[in-house]
């Protein structure tokens, strides 16, 4: 009996299965694979068990009960959800998922019914913590950095930082969880990812408002308000400049200019080959500008940043103040054509006007100068003061001759090293006697430092002998002596007459005092005489008794003189002693009177 086609195919498949061992039992040679290994909370991790027999060939001869699945979280108490395993569409695999609501690490183990772990068992997967509480160090790629390790304007870099949550586990950060900023509000950020690691790109701006040294990138977590930052050195791109570059100048007494190199997008590194500088002077005659570049020493120096070059200059011969202008050009790299840049030209005054504090009068070579002779005098110019003689005034007290104009020398040959002005001083010939001249230097009406200076102008001996003015000297001396002698004689006469008047007044006062004293003395004598006459007897007895008593003891008492009542008693008075005191110098100006007891003031003429 012939077999049908379907029966034949069934027998063929069955035989193939037997030969290939498809119906062999599942063994520990089965393989476990899970993907992805890191998910956010409540996201599923898909796992597949590839069932294999002992020869590691796929087999469908198994049941779901032949395998045991264990999902063990690292964080105790974490709820892990494992889905019900299902047989795959290929009949030789088992599918299931694992998830957790909170962050944790999970170890997924699969065992056979015999308790043997299959291959790949124990795979570790992570459920990230959310929200994140901490960010690690921020590092940025250096692919676009220059050789100095700086990020040029317009370039980009990718930055990464690990993200952690509670229990120091890996966490996830979402775009709304962070704030990305730059301290100078320069550049832009792009969020890339935040699973266990924050990834973002930073692109530097084309231009900046003000110069700074580094970009300061800051990351802030909204959940903790903690700030994390990193710095990247800032640099300017090395690109060709264009005519949009600019010239900026500052300063009044001394002008300093800066060239800022730029292209159409922003600043670039300054390159000398891209620029040229020229000077022009304004002509007083026709008000035209003429080239004067050869009059200046131009100095180029690097500016504060690499896109800026500083220009400074000094006059080679600083002997005149004039109006000048500086011009800056962009030079095309291929054709060499020059184009004036923005801000050019700049008009300035060449030379520094002197002041009394920036000029010093050194003095003259000779301090003593004979009449008609000359000497050289020197003025020191300090702090770049101009040598333009129109600003200086030299004056002499004796009208000495001053050479004009003053001579400017850029470097003092004596070794001082400063610019100087010199002039010739010629003493006048009209001076007949030795004279001290005061030589002064002024600027705008003010005396400069160490001004004025003394110069002694003397007359040689030969000139003194022939000087006709010497003949008049005796007459001048006599005139002076007569003038001052008359004053001295007049004073002496006035003093003598005053002394004579004082002497006469003193003599008159002495005479009056003698007359008054004589009258007082005569009154005393008459009063005593009257008293003696009236009481003569009793006076005599009392006197005798007194004398007798005093001489008791054997000595005889002297006999008192006999006084007759009514008789005169002569009295001896030492008038010469009393009168002799009259007219002598007295310590006071008041004379006491015995008779009247009153005080008499001295004569007003005394």
Automatic annotation (TrEMBL):
It comes from Bodo saltans (Flagellated protozoan). Residues 545-606 are annotated as: Disordered. This is Membrane-associated protein, putative. The keyword Membrane applies. The chain crosses the membrane at residues 476-496. The lineage of its organism: Eukaryota, Discoba, Euglenozoa, Kinetoplastea, Metakinetoplastina. Keywords: Membrane, Signal, Transmembrane, Transmembrane helix. It comes from the Eukaryota. Residues 585-597 have a biased composition (Low complexity).
């Amino acid at each position: 009996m012939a077999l049908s086609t379907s029966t034949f195919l069934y027998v063929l498949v069955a035989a193939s299965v037997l030969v290939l061992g498809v119906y062999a039992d599942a063994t520990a040679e089965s393989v476990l694979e899970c993907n992805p290994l890191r998910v956010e909370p409540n996201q599923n991790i898909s796992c597949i068990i590839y069932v294999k027999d002992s020869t590691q060939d796929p087999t469908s001869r198994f049941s779901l009960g032949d395998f045991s699945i264990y999902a063990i979280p690292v964080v105790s108490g974490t709820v892990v959800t494992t889905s019900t395993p299902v047989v795959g569409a290929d009949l030789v695999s088992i599918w299931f998922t694992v998830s957790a609501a909170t962050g944790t690490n999970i170890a997924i183990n699969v065992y056979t019914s015999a308790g043997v772990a299959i291959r790949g068992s124990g795979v570790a997967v992570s459920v990230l913590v959310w929200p994140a509480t901490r960010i690690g160090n921020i590092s940025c790629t250096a692919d676009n950095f220059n050789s100095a390790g700086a990020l040029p304007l317009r370039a980009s870099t990718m930055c990464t930082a690990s993200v952690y949550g509670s229990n120091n586990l890996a966490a996830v950060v979402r775009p709304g969880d962070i704030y990305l900023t730059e301290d100078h509000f320069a550049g832009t950020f792009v969020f890339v990812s935040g699973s266990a690691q924050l990834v973002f790109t930073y692109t530097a701006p084309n231009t900046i408002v003000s110069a700074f040294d580094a970009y300061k990138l800051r990351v802030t977590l909204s959940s903790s308000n903690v700030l994390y930052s990193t710095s990247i050195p800032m640099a300017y791109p090395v690109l060709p400049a264009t005519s949009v570059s600019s010239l900026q100048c500052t300063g009044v007494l001394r002008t300093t200019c800066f060239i800022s190199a730029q292209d159409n997008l922003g600043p670039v590194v300054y390159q000398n080959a891209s620029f040229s500088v020229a000077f022009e002077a304004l002509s007083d005659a026709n008000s035209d500008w003429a080239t004067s570049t050869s009059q200046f020493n131009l100095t180029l120096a690097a500016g504060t940043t690499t896109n800026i070059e500083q220009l400074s200059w000094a006059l080679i011969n600083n002997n005149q103040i004039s109006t000048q202008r500086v011009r800056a050009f962009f030079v095309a790299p291929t054709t060499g054509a020059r184009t004036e840049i923005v801000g050019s030209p700049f008009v300035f005054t060449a030379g520094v006007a002197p002041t009394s504090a920036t000029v010093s009068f050194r003095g003259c070579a000779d301090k003593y100068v004979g009449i008609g002779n000359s000497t050289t005098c020197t003025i020191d110019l300090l702090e770049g003061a101009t040598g333009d003689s129109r600003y200086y005034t030299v004056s002499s007290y004796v009208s000495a001759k001053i050479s004009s104009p003053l001579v400017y020398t850029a470097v003092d040959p004596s070794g001082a090293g400063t610019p100087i002005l010199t002039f010739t001083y010629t003493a006048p010939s009209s001076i007949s006697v030795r004279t001290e001249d005061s030589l002064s230097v002024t600027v705008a009406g003010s005396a400069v430092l160490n001004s004025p200076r003394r110069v002694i102008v003397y007359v040689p001996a030969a000139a003194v002998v022939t000087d006709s003015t010497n003949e008049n000297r005796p007459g001048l001396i006599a005139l002076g002596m007569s003038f001052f002698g008359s004053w001295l004689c007049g004073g002496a006469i006035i003093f003598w007459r005053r002394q004579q008047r004082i002497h006469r007044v003193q003599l008159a006062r002495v005479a009056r005092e003698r007359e008054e004293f004589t009258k007082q003395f005569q009154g005393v004598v008459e009063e005593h005489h009257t008293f003696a006459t009236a009481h003569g007897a009793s006076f005599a007895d009392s006197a005798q008794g007194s004398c007798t008593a005093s001489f008791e003891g054997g000595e005889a008492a002297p006999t008192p003189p006999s006084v007759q009542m009514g008789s005169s008693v002569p009295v001896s008075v030492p008038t010469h002693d009393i009168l002799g005191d009259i007219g002598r110098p007295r310590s006071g100006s008041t004379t006491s009177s015995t008779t009247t007891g009153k005080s008499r003031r001295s004569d007003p003429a005394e």
